[in-house]
Amino acid sequence: MVGEAPERIAIESDADVVTARQRARALAVGLDMPSTDQTLLATAISEVARNITAYAVRGEVLLELVRDGDGRRGIRVVARDEGPGIADLERALTDGYTTGGGLGLGLPGARRLVDDFNIETAPGVGTTVTLVKWTR
Amino acid sequence: MAVPILKQGPFLIASIQSALTDTDVLQLRDDVMAQVTRHRSRGIIVDVTSLDVMDSFVSRSLRGIAQMTRLRGATTVIVGIQPEVAFAMVQLGMSFEDVLTALDLEEGLALLQARKEPGESGG
Q1: Contact criterion met (CB below 8 Å) for B63 and B96
Q2: Domain ranges in chain B?
Q3: Residue A81, in any domain of the structure
Q4: Of A15, A42, A102, the CB nearest to B56
Q5: B8: Cβ–Cβ under 8 A, 6 or more apart, which residues?
Q6: Which of A2, A23, B42, B48 fits as disulfide partner to B10, beta carbons 3.0 to 4.6 Å?
Q7: Domain containing A40: what range?
Q8: CATH number of the domain enclosing A101
Q9: pLDDT surpasses 90 at B1
């Protein structure tokens, strides 16, 4: 762990989704992350942050610099809301499944774009998606 | 921020200048449809060179523009998808198989010209 306080971005509108991914890219640039990885991370954040505005109305994205046991650095993204939660998580992680009228690529797509992906959700409680992109 | 749409002969060129919110993308779709109708355009180029992210919403919306304009008898070409963006789109699962693409504005215009001419010569 780097020990700096995470950067918090409130997610309440589609403009906040853009802000979240731009801030993450700025952090990735600071870590000298390759530009392809910057783009993968920014795209994944766009997907999970949009899920907040689409399903939960509001929530937040936390961005944090992290370091693993081997000294490798990365960016951890926590996207969380206190929205309706996901009733069927397995299906929500399946390509093409959607309850929101989209393509159903958001969560399964975001998972393919990052190195670590974790999701905790409970109906009526909310959803927390955690992503990590490591430097190579 | 609104995307400027320029008319060039029978074609429209929508040149995206900066990061788009979802609202901006929907506005672009509506503006393109209105202009295609007003100018009886035969082709549309959407230049995404300046986009550093094309997530599933933007991709789906651009595909929607291509499909809607096709129903109006016009052809849409997406130009300028950056290499990193292309990589991310494929990982995401957005292959754009049913959307015409070209490397840049020049190639996009050449593609539209090539599609226009055979029809005009009467086949």
Answers
A1: yes
A2: 5-120
A3: yes
A4: A102
A5: B109
A6: B42
A7: 7-134
A8: 3.30.565.10
A9: no
Q: Is residue B104 helix, strand or coil? A: coil
Contacts of A31 (CB under 8 A, 6+ apart): A65, A73, A74, A75, A135
The count of structural domains within chain A is 1
The 10s digit of each residue's pLDDT in B39-78 is 999 999 999 999 999 999 999 999 999 999 999 999 999 9
In CATH, what number does B5-120 get?
Answer: 3.30.750.24
- Interface pTM, i.e. ipTM: 0.90
Of the candidates B53, B91, B93, the beta carbon closest to that of A42 is on B53
> What distance in Å separates the CA atoms of residue A27 and residue A123, rounded to the nearest whole number?
33
Residue A1 within a domain: no
Helix (H) or strand (E) holding A63: strand A59-67
For residue range A94-105, list pLDDT tens digits in order: 888 888 767 777
Residue A39 forms part of a structural domain: yes
Contact state of B55 with A35 under an 8 Å Cβ cutoff: no
β-strand partners of B76: B44
* Torsion angles phi and psi, residue A99, rounded to 5: -110, 5
Q: CB distance A39–B53 less than 8 Å?
A: yes
pLDDT at residue A96, rounded to an integer = 83
Amino acid at A128: T
Model's pTM, two decimal places? 0.92
Interface of B with A (CB under 8 A): 19-23, 52-57, 60, 82-85, 87-88, 91-94
Kindly write down the DSSP assignment for every residue of A11-47, as one continuous string.
Answer: E-SHHHHHHHHHHHHHHHHHTT--HHHHHHHHHHHHH
Joined tokens for residue A82: 């206190």
**Quick check: A112 contacting B, CB < 8 Å?**
yes
